Backbone:
């Protein structure tokens, strides 16, 4: 089958959350300020999807299963879809589509500038994620797509600026991000296949 069922499962799993949150907002299940809750959930969803996307290559190296890579592009595009919804929810529910407030907002919440830089970088990756761009850009494509680590840094900084005192949740995402970054350092990456090869035969047979 060209499009296996589990890939459709990934699509449904990513699509269901924003729909559920919109339904909750509509049915007044998100408290007195549903717009803000929606913005926060979509922002966190963007960061989590970014981390999941970045985990695909190390998982493929660890397990040897090509399926992780097959689904990486779809997850990256979902990450972009979430950030578009995050931005749209901010424009509608926080700004109230009143663009004259934008200047005030930027001076009141400078972390938005950091988020906006992350958005532009994600947009660049999304529009060049197709095979045509890959062929046209050649080796530059890989370099461009290393921007994903910059986006992770911007996303974490953006969140840190917002949560400030309550660092527990932020520290979890930052640690996962740091681990994924470490796994991309060439001497560490080179050791990953050896870790699998060194498994005792009984462990692989089971
Ligand atoms: C133009 C782009 C962006 C705008 C305007 C924006 C705006 C916002 C706003 C207004 C909040 C809520 C702040 C609050 O609770 O007081 C927020 C939260 C957040 N945003 Fe963004 N953001 C943008 C891009 C991004 C990007 C690129 C990422 C991730 C890569 C991201 C991840 C987050 C996270 C993780 C939170 C915190 C959620 C939580 O506390 O539960 N945002 N953003």
Residues:
């Amino acid at each position: 089958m060209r499009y296996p069922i589990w890939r459709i499962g990934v699509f449904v799993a990513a699509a269901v959350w924003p729909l559920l949150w919109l339904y909750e907002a509509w049915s007044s299940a998100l408290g007195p300020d549903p717009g803000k809750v929606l913005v926060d959930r979509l922002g966190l969803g963007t960061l989590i999807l970014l981390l999941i996307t970045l985990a695909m290559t190390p998982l493929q190296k660890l397990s040897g299963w090509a399926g992780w890579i097959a689904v990486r592009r779809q997850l990256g595009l979902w990450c972009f879809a979430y950030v578009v919804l995050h931005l749209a929810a901010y424009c509608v529910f926080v700004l109230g589509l009143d663009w004259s407030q934008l200047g005030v907002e930027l001076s009141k919440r400078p972390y938005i500038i950091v988020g906006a830089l992350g958005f532009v970088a994600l947009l660049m990756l999304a529009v060049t994620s197709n095979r045509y761009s890959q062929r046209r850009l050649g080796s530059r494509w890989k370099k461009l797509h290393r921007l994903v680590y910059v986006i992770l840094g911007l996303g974490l900084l953006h969140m840190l600026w917002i949560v400030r005192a309550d660092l527990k949740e932020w520290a979890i995402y930052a640690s996962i991000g740091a681990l994924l970054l470490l796994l991309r350092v060439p001497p560490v990456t080179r050791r990953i296949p050896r870790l699998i090869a060194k498994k005792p035969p009984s462990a692989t047979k089971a």
User: Anything to note?
Assistant: Residues 5-205 form one domain. The chain has one domain: 5-205.
